[in-house]
Amino acid sequence: MRDPMREDRPDPDALLQRLQADEARARRGRLKIFFGASAGVGKTYAMLAAARAAQAQGTPLVVGVVETHGRGDTEAMAAGLPRLALKDVAYRGRTLHEFDLDGALAFGAAQAGASVRPLVLLDELAHSNAPADAGKGSRHPKRWQDVEELLAAGVDVWTTINVQHLESLNDIVSGITGVRVWETVPDRLFDAADEVVVVDLPPDELLQRLKAGKVYLPNAADGRDNRAERAAGNFFRKGNLLALRELALRRTADRVDDEMQAYRRQSAVQPVWANRESLLACIGPGAQGEKVARSCARLATQLAVPWHAVHVESLALHGPAGARREHAARVLKLAAELGAITATLSAPDAATALLRYAREHNLARLVVGRSSRRFAWQRSLADRVTAEAEDIDVLQVAVPAAERGTRRSRSQGAQDRQNPQNPQNRQNRQRAGLPVAAPWPWQGYVAALAICGATALLATPLMAVLELSNIVMLFLLAVVGVALGFGRGPAVLAAFVGVGLFDFLFVEPRFSFAVSDAQYLLTFGVMLLVALVIGQLTAGLKVQAEAATQRERRVRSLYEMSRDLSAALLPEQVAEIGARFLRSEFSAQSTLLVADAHNRLLAVAAPAAPAEAAPQRVDMGVAQWAFDRGEPAGRGTDTLPGSATLVLPLKAPMRIRGVLSVLPSDARVLGTEQRRLLDTCASLLAISLERIHYIDVAQSSTVQIESERLRNSLLSAISHDLRTPLASLIGLADTLALTPPPPTAAQLDVMQSIRQAALRMAALVNNLLDMARLQSGAVQLNLQWQPLEEVVGTALAACKQLLAGRPLQVRLADGLPLLQLDAVLIERVLVNLLENAAKYTPAGSALELSAQVEGDSVQITLDDHGPGLPRGREEAIFQKFERGQKESATAGVGLGLAICRAIAQVHGGSIEGATRPEGGARFTLTLPRGEPPLDDGAGSIAASAASAPSSITTP
Amino acid sequence: MSDNPARVLVVEDEAHIRRFVRLALQAEGHEVFEADTLQRGLIDAGTRRPDLVVLDLGLPDGDGVDLIRDLRGWSAMPVIVLSARGSERDKITALDAGADDYLVKPFGAGELMARVRAQLRRHAQQSQQVQGGEPVLRFADVVVDLSRRSVERAGVPLHLTPIEYRLLTHLAAQPDRVVTHRQLLKAVWGPTHSEDTHYVRVHMANLRKKVEAEPSMPKHLVTEAGVGYRFVP
Are B147 and B156 in contact (CB under 8 A)? Predict the structure, then answer.
């Protein structure tokens, strides 16, 4: 009995996924990484040595980039290996030499047919390419992206990397060594590598090599900079080297462990518990987000679980909104690179939103930064989450105190250093920073003061009428007004100024801050507190209302676009609707490029485009790249970021329909949410294009079916209307002879002539109709496996009278296989050939029909002993309305052989004619053998039939 | 003039062809009834009680096959079908429904009369056999003894496999009748194998090698291309 609890069969979906992954892997190139703890351990040397061995075994390889740093032994190793010429990239007046990706791809393509996959050596995986100035530089900003493209093109790559360049270990290494490295490589590349070779060297030996000057110090490149030298010296301390070595080995061990796990899964050694407790990294508003993301990534890798990274835009945020949002977006991008699923939520309370998200996505562990508390009464996020959901684990990540405050400025600096070549960066930040988020930085405060003053002025004459408590109300009202109009800061100012004015102007003694009655202190305190709280709440409400309005507007415009798209019937309409949406949402110009049947991209002109939206310049190179790969390219992406336009592929369910080229009006980089909106827009356009495409397909196939039907009914009507009178004619001519009185000899002769003429006419009509059927594809083959001799038999029987008096030899080789053919049509071929032979060879001359197996086909030949075929017209006689001799006395229009050829072709065979050297013509019909069924039914006789074999009943 | 005149029903919508068939049959001394629609044909087949029906498949008010099915419900009278060229499927349907033979238009009076004669002869023989005929079939120099289940050729015993024997006896018992592949399969292999028509072809080829003088030009086990076989005594 089967035990339902023991279900150790692998999940079929997972198996399928693995098969597909295997298949994809088989096409991809293989990545081998030479991995070291630090510079100087000999990675390049090891790679070159391995490459020499591979070259000796016949692997076609080329050195893409190798940095020998002038070391003799490494130089010697590299000598003799074929090198790819470096590409010169002009940058700021200097010429940089960069790896030539297209050259390497061309090398790979040239070796594509070889049995061994081509190999490219690329030193320093973490290298940043020189910037792509308007597409003249390297295609990708990073070398590892070049490597990915090479792998995708089926080229093997060997490369080197140090442990500090791994993204997830980057901050740990900087913590150990105090030197921060800005060039990093995503861990997934390392984890997905097919092979990792650890190049290990004990620290003492490394230090010796360092002393001997055998190690190149990257930080002391110019050699004169004392600080750099000192930094390098600090870096190469024994303690650091030991720690780095441990880190490198441990990281490799993790990888090996993953491989083991993968192997276990693959061989289903043990049942795997399907419930995977994924992690949720809460990217807070503060600076610790980066740290949280990295820690969570490491944790997720160790636990081998997927993880999410979420940022909550909440009310209780401090600091300028724009900068905060940008920071969060940057951290989310980092998280996505580290392998997370990212999302931005908007909610008044972060804890509730996070918990809801965690429950929706079945995430059992939250990773949060240990938040700094500004005030003693504030509860940390972790506390709030714990209070609300006791079933969810909360992991707090420690953030060094120094980083809490200074991290942002550091990380911004990091951006500068990371991308020193990109002059756009600074501008972007300026645009996206403070001024954008808070439109009136100082006007608000002035207004706050003015409003408070006005309130005081208004209240002064009323003093006699109103109680003091009601005057307090007026000031609170003013604070609410300021908060609504100008946000938090002015509201706080208004609260304080309001309390001050109230004290100064209205509380005895007036025009003095002194207070006569101590209980007014309570009034001031409560008034201030209430003003502050109301001000904060009101301002927060306003922010949220604005955000909600904006979101609602976006959703509405998306909805409107999809509604418009559903009515679109032409690609031009789709282009126009898309352009309208992008103009209103992003104030961006756009061009829709649709792929035609030959995968060429053609711009679709929007018919009602306003004059100022003249067709933007489309970077066809970027567009084609994006279309071919199905990935976004151009501005803000990893591919050709120097281009002015952003190109999104239009991925529809069946295929990529084209691309959308977007030219934003300003230079700002698009945020995550905007990109998401753009992607949604692109997929809506893609689906519409696909729908339109299939409308076309449906229409044209309807037309085709209709014309097919028309042709068939026309053919059958013609054949009926032509044949029926001929059939009557033949029959009536016959009957005439039977009708008494018996006809005279002369009358009989006339009757015979009528009959013969009608028969010839019928044959002609048959030929014409057959040809028309064969040509229009209206013939439905009735293919059956059958012995050839049966068809030969029927053909000979049909030509019995024609061939009377001729010696006919039939030689069918023994063991001819069954052939899959339409007996009626092949009989027709043989009859036509025999009729031709009877027509064109002298009466009484011999004919030989034979058949034998030739390779994977069967050849049927008919030899005659006539004059042979007209020289040079052996092929022409198979054409329609062609005859061997023009104006011959022999009847016929020259369709017989054309029909033979058409029939042979629909059977997947051929027919040829030739004059034999010894004279006479030979026609050869070749038919494919196929795979005949082996079962001849001898073993499957019905029991009932077997028991009563001879009891035959006739109906 | 035929030695035994019969009553023949001709169901055909083309007046010219109907007339020529009628004239040809009358010349042989048969009595002919004409019908130009399916309905008329059904009524005449019931009231006139013909000995043989000549039926066109394409009738204005329906498919001739329906008439055959109806007819076979109560009669075994021979049916010869007239069909257009190239419509093998229609022929097979008609034969499977119970028709005995077919003629492809255009056909001559000679051909028609030969078929009519053969069908009438077979029908007469079978009525005799039902009353206890000799359980021996003879053609050319082959003798099939149905009671002893033995086959001899020119006095020499032939070794036939059970399948070949069954094929031969099934065909030979209905001379001049076109038997479709499907009918043969059903008779020899049972109803479950009606699609494996190559079974029949393979064994028929072997059978021909044993009983025919020239297997590639058979005289008795004749192939009807794309349709089936006919046994000619």
Answer: no
